[in-house]
Amino acid sequence: MKEKKFFMMIEVWVLALVMIVPSLAQEKKSEAQKKEFTALEILKKSDSVANAPKDQEIIMEMILIDKKGKQKKRGAKMLQKGSEKRMIKFLSPADVKGLAFLDLPNDMMYLYLPAFKKIRRIASHVKNTSFAGTDFTYDDMASINYADEWVPGLMESKKEIVSVSAEKEKELESKECEHYLLELKPKEGIKKDYSKLVMWVRKDNFYPARIEHYSREGKLWKIMERRKIVKEAKYWVSKETEMNDLKKEHKTKMLISEVKFDQGLKDELFSQRYLKRK
């Protein structure tokens, strides 16, 4: 009888351990998920995710939409190497074909105008003007590490219903995502047309999903939204980006049809001479 009671006690202890171990593992997992990051850490993580590829080649369509819904479509190609070199060239229609923009380190920007067959350096005071009639400025179109130019502050977290893809956009589903909200203000000595930005950074992958741009008077001016955020190979990419200018009641959408990563793009592709090539 005593022997039977002893084995019953052993069974109870074993059962208790089986229940406790998963509980402890779950508790540790929850603690890891609850890890708090500083605003600067979040911004740097966001920069590293957005600029993760060694290089990228993108074929896209730009759609300009006015307040009456009238559309203008443009085909374009973008090359980027790291986070400091970017080239954008229009492929169509005929009136903008060949127009090209080059962004290089040390705040060097160039524009090729095929009608004049000339390359012009973009002066500092022009960088905050419209890029080729779109709702993006030259500065918006440049490759950027936000942590280099902006001072972040952490706001409250937000939840938003976003459209994500399970397998490369085969089946889109609605999913509730949590976001970090960062308030970004220009660093001292850096001139921007925006008094501040509010950046929505997804908590699951640190991808910057939305950026609100405020005027110098502190009013909401533009909203950039990145949609259809999917994982291509090992990188996160937004297949659809929209910049909405609330003042002009005008929008520009960028729809990516093809993207290639890590092809070993040569530095010579990011040169003034290459801007002229057809």
Overview of the structural elements:
With 278 residues, this protein is of the alpha+beta class. It has helices at 2-33, 39-50, 138-141, 146-149, 272-275, and strands at 55-65, 71-81, 85-92, 100-104, 108-113, 118-121, 150-154, 158-165, 172-186, 196-202, 208-214, 220-232, 235-245, 250-261. It has a single domain (39-275), classed as outer membrane lipoprotein receptor (LolB), chain A (Clam), CATH 2.50.20.10. It contains five helices and 14 strands. The chain is globular.
Structure characteristics:
alpha+beta, 278 residues, single chain, 14-stranded antiparallel β-sheet, globular, outer membrane lipoprotein receptor (LolB), chain A
Query: Roughly what is the average pLDDT, rounded to an integer?
Result: 85
Number of strands: 14
Which structural class do you get from the secondary structure elements? alpha+beta
CATH homology group: Lipoprotein localisation LolA/LolB/LppX
Element-by-element helix/strand order: HHEEEEEEHHEEEEEEEEH
Number of helices, where a helix is a run of at least 4 consecutive DSSP H or I residues: 5
By CATH, the topology is: outer membrane lipoprotein receptor (LolB), chain A
Give the class-level CATH name: Mainly Beta
Rg: 24 Å
The percent range for helix content is 10-25%
Question: Based on CA inertia axes, which overall geometry fits?
Answer: globular
Tally of domains? 1
Q: How much of the sequence is in beta strands? A: 35-45%
Could you list the spans in which at least 5 consecutive residues all have pLDDT below 50? 12-22, 27-33, 163-174
Q: Strand count, sense and closure of the main sheet?
A: 14 strands, antiparallel
CATH architecture grouping: Clam
Please give the alpha-carbon distance between the first and last residues: 93 Å
